[in-house]
Design brief:
By secondary structure, the protein is mainly beta. The protein has one domain (2-40, 54-281): Roll (Carbonic Anhydrase II). Helix content is 7%, strand content 34%. It has helices at 60-63, 69-72, 188-191, 250-257; strands spanning 2-4, 11-17, 93-95, 101-104, 110-114, 119-131, 134-144, 158-166, 171-180, 201-204, 221-227, 235-242, 246-248, 274-281. It has a ten-stranded mixed beta barrel. The N and C termini lie close together (4 Å). The relative contact order is 0.25.
Length: 283
Amino acid sequence: MQIKSTRAAITATAILAGIVMAGCAPPATQAPHKDEAPAAAAHQEAPHWDYGQTAGPASWGKLSPEYALCGEGRSQSPIDLAAGASGTTDALKLSYSPASLHIVHHAHKADVMNTGHSIQVNYPEADTLTVGGETFALAQYHFHSPSEHTIDGKQLPMEMHLGHKSSAGRLAVVGVLIEEGARNAAFDPIWANLPKAQGVSQHHEAVTVDVDQMLPKSHAAWRYDGSLTTPPCSEGVKWFVMRETIQMSADQIAAFRGILKGNNRPIQPLNGRTIMVDSIQED
């Protein structure tokens, strides 16, 4: 398959192959959350943070020196993917440049956990995402409700993040925006086993999930450099947010929100960053 820019005569290569199972496992010694799953060490007695008033997003940067980037960073996530009107300092800047994306999937069993910040599915064995010659291992995917990224200021009911980490410690996250609509059977194996209590982790030996079926049919994506959306808000994260949404039913969305709701970080300033837009077309 090839990646072709929708607005410029630029071509890149993209290969998506295989059927996957649910679960992306963070590094063995960690139980990270969200995009940070590949990066943050969740059990290191770090200062408590949440999405409330006292220890919520507005206060993260003040909770610990480790979290300073949450308040001082200049390349933070999430962002409005059609941010800013023409002429403003945060006006969206589009750049159409080649990108190389390869995804290789393998079959895995599902490990589902309630981190207290999200429902996370860990991968005990790594799938891979290759960007510009660098390979990133899929560690986990998790969910936010409502969405963290917005489109033209519009927030969607949910968002899924697939967190990847390279051997050099660099991070890449694929974001998928979720709207209310038809029931999505691809999520049934996980939704039937959502852990309701914080800290509960469930291993499902017989549960298999096709991650490819969780992605939109079109693999066109916004691409930008950002950060983790939770403490420590580390920057240098490569973001790929799918431009086409997927659907979940009202019941599926309600099932997640019955456990966790409001686990989204507010939109962060663009600060002159460039957003790259690529259209991935399968041959």
